Amino acid sequence: MGGTSSVVLVPCARNGELPNGWREELQAHCRNNPQDHCALPPEGDDPDSAAEAFRGWIVSVVKNTQTSSALSEGTAKLVLLLGTGTACFDRMAVLQLCEAIRDVSRKRLLVKYVRYQELRRSSFNADEAQGLSEQADDLLAHNAWTDAPYYFFKKESLQPVCGVTRFRQRLLHNERHVEDDARLDGPMELQLILLPFIEASQERVAELLSAAASGDLSQVEEMLQAPLDPNVAGRDDQTPLMVAASHGHDETVRLLLDAGADKDQCDGSREVPLHAASRSGHADVVRLLLEARAATERQSSHATPLLLACSEGHLNVAKLLLEAGADLELGNSSGSAPLHAAAASGHTEVVGLLLEAGADRNPEDPYGGTPLLLACVNGHLDVVRLLLEARADKDQGNSCGDAPLHVAAYSGHVRLVQLLLDARADKNQTSGFDMETPLHAATEANHAEIVRLLLNAGADKHRASGTPSETPLEVAQQRNLVEIVHLLQDASKAELRVGVRKRGCCSCLRRSRRRDAPRAEAWADLVRWPAVHLQDAA
Asked: Residues of the chain with pLDDT > 90: what percent?
């Protein structure tokens, strides 16, 4: 297997296409042939599944001192080893790979495709190219060795050197403009000219913004080639990237980013493109902006991108932002968190995502409200259930002292009230200012069914509120709430009848209340026992 040529062997196949032990065979080959070098991807990597990552790895290989030296001796040769199936790169991907290596090695690069099986019975001299797989040869040309970098040239490879994008580059050969897709027949001298941006009139800016809004790629490309600054702004400081992001035109966004558009340039409301894409739920655009390292913590005058996505229920966008490291607790300038927004809007899946990611269950908004309280205000039963299962504080009130059970009772959410009672929420908790209980709240709002639920749960019907001091019955009588008056009176009569049977008269009941309290509690436990234990068994 020895040879006189200096080559770099690169596995370029799906893992399943190479025989067992291929890695060890290549390493042994390079030990026995010091002039050759093996470029082996990390264990388990499949270059066919991630061509872009593989090309990046190739560049890092070439930067290696030993490999770079091998490529720099005369005419460098790169051997891409194929498996039994098709090549892992298409033609354009191979050309991009060649250019990347050429940029590092600064040498002419020859590329050769070899079936892995050929490695075992041939050397890698160019003279032995005849007989290689025609399928492999046809991927680039009809010769086994292909002078790839000199057939095509991409301006993107010059950007790290000259510091400007391809849109401002012009290549000349013999005083003639070289088109981007021109075929170059061999080594030649090219003149590189860097152009300044043209003056952007209001008409040009409006035209570019319109093209970005409609996703007209060809028109955007043409105007950027003028070259027009991609960061020009129109009314309200809207940039082409902001407009394209808000309309979900991912290819236009990609083009503008390639042209050097500022991913974090804000408009008049301090929003950046990531805000616009997150609010509108354009996951592909969000992904592009995050890949370009857009800031996830940037607050507009409204909120962070994560809070906007959570408020609108865009689950996939929220996932992308969290994977990119967005702060779970940072929301808007007022102090509301993403969990507040998702809970208040009733987006159960987003609430679940945030809880699973470790969000605080009980953050307080500027008014002291928790996500559970906001979900109760708006009647989002599934969200309340999810928060209770996550052990959110069922009795934590806002700055006015209103707890979840207060707002659910006042808002008339019957099933929510039952859910909170089942979770053992405090049925006699008083609010901060007027000392009202949930029973007061339900009575004032004339929700008879909720009054019935609270009474059945043992809510204190005699507790008076603050100033003026009124019991629920007095509130109902003053407002002429007939049905609730009857409910409260019937509950009082039932209580009175129980007291008479137990002690003979009301006065006896009052005198013996303290002495009989343990006995009454024990009796209540016996009544509750069957239901509790049947529920546990179920």
From this structure: 47
Letter string b/e over residues 507-533, b meaning 16 or more CB atoms within 10 A of that residue's CB = eebeeeeeeeeeeeeeeeeeeeeeeee
pLDDT at residue 176 above 90?
no
Instruction: Using DSSP bridges, classify how beta strands 7-11 and 37-38 pair: parallel, antiparallel or unpaired.
Output: parallel
What would the two tokens of residue 232 be?
């020009």
Mean pLDDT of 405-414: 95
Q: Within 10 Å of residue 139's Cβ, how many Cβ atoms?
A: 18
Task: Using CB atoms within 10 Å of the CB of residue 497, give its burial: 0 to 12 exposed, 13 to 18 middle, 19+ buried.
Answer: exposed
Per-chain mean pLDDT for the chain = 75
Mean pLDDT check: name the lowest of 67-81, 244-258, 417-431, 520-534.
520-534
- Beta-sheet pairing, 76-82 with 169-173: unpaired
Task: Please give the pLDDT value at position 62.
Answer: 54
Mean pLDDT of 188-203: 88
Q: At 457, is the secondary structure helix, strand, or coil?
A: coil
Is residue 393 classed as helix, strand or coil in its secondary structure?
Answer: coil
Q: CB of 117 within 8 A of CB of 133?
A: no
SS3 201: coil
Region of residue 295 (phi > 0: left; psi between -120 and 50: alpha; otherwise: beta): beta
What distance in Å separates the CA atoms of residue 156 and residue 154, rounded to the nearest whole number?
A: 5
CA atoms within 13 A on the CB side of 88: 28
